[in-house]
Amino acid sequence: MSLNPLQMHNTKKELRQNFELTGLSKSEIANDLKISEVKLEKIFKLKQRTLEDTWILRNYLLEKVENAGQEPVPFTALAGDWHHHWFLNADLIDHQQMSKGDN
């Protein structure tokens, strides 16, 4: 599934807003997810090849925002249950298994 330009803009904004609500640094998030900051930045910019990586980051941010006692910014395009999207590998998302490397 591809996002149109408006959906891409909104998703980047929603990722950034939720990141800010976590109170965490990008370094902390990269360490938690066991990825490089280079890869994390690609995911934030929606330049990552693997769609599941963006969903993993989305779920991570939502959890951390809630743990911080904040109200998460809802995602408009990355919405619903990822188990129901045929184009996603739900097992990878469930286990927070990011793709290998920085691409």
**Amino-to-carboxy terminus distance:** 18 Å
Portion of residues in beta strands equals: under 5%
Task: Give the structural class.
Answer: mainly alpha
Main beta-sheet annotation: none
Give the strand tally. Answer: 0
Helix content: 40-55%
Give, in order, the helices and strands: HHHHH
Return residue spans where pLDDT drops below 50 for at least 5 consecutive residues.
none
Could you say which overall geometry the principal axes of the C-alpha atoms support? Answer: globular
Mean pLDDT: 94
Could you characterize what this model shows?
The chain is mostly helical. It has one domain (5-94). 54% of the residues lie in helices and 0% in strands. Helix 1 packs parallel to helix 4 (51-67) and helix 2 crosses helix 3 (37-44). It is globular and about 35 Å long. It comes from Lactococcus lactis subsp. cremoris (strain MG1363). It holds the Pfam family DUF2316. This is DUF2316 family protein.
